[in-house]
Amino acid sequence: MVSFAISNELRARLERGGPILALTGAGVSAESGLATFRGPGGMWEGRDPMELATPQAFAADPETVWRFYDWRRKQAAEAAPNPAHVAFAALEQGRDSFRLVTQNVDGLHERAGNRDVLRLHGSLWRLRCLGDCEEHDNLELDLGPLPPRCACGALLRPAVVWFGEPLDPAVLHRAEQFAEEADLVIVAGTSALVYPAAALPEIARLAGAYVVEVNPETTPLSERADVHIAGSAGAVLPRLVEVAGIA
Ligand code: BV8
Known about the structure:
The protein is α/β, with parallel strands linked by helices. It contains eight helices and nine strands. The strands form two sheets. The protein has a six-stranded parallel sheet, with helices on both faces. The chain has a three-stranded antiparallel sheet with strand order 5-4-6, with helices on one face. Helix 4 packs parallel to helix 8. Bound molecules: ligand BV8.
């Protein structure tokens, strides 16, 4: 059993039913067995992310980039939502003013039952045609020869946001609005290094939100957050849901 103190202010904000914003990163999926990006055992360990997650890398070698994403699709399909994902789904069911904004592309929040997930960096389970066809869902575990091609003949790419690519402006604007309206922000499982996602907790804090960070490690956010709970999301989140009085 993880024991950690819950500040009076955190308890008050969980109990009083104000807008709660959750901002999640790869660490929330770590207990489902999915590798994070940075840190020991991370996906980028031994690899240069700029060689796998940029439009230039894809243009230069679409097959290698697709091997990386095909591997991640298969990993994500084999993974199951963990108690952290289940807790976020309970928060959405228990509070009509709960908002979930994720940097994750693995689809585990949706599989845990969250219906309104704002995906800042896209999804492994959507493909984009480099021609003019519509972006579409694709849950196939066998994409055939890599790189996959659209029926129109053009290359298909994962519908994720690579480094140097802008986020969807409407998605980012909505996330910034949630940050400005939040009474409590739960930042879980992110190294708080990637912008503009990493700016959201600061936007919320400056607008009066109470910011709690859930991460076994400290990050650049830790000294600015109101409280840093040094624990895993799978252990901490169910406890926060309990304090919020949500079954
Ligand atoms: C853009 C692809 C502009 C998808 C990824 C300032 C403003 C704007 C941009 C920038 C800026 N400064 C720098 C930039 C450029 C860049 C950036 O931020 N670089 C950083 C590295 C310095 N940003 C961009 O390029 C963005 N684009 O702003 O474009 C623009 C505007 C107009 C026109 C043209 C351009 C695009 C950013 C998105 C990049 N795409 N990946 C994919 O393959 O997934 S980034 C990658 O990192 C993932 O998407 C992920 O979402 C993101 C963040 O990683 P985390 O989720 O935090 O994961 P990480 O492994 O880092 O950390 C895990 C954490 O979990 C750790 O802290 C660990 O301790 C913790 N943990 C572990 N276990 C647990 C746990 N926590 C809880 N419980 C556990 N059990």
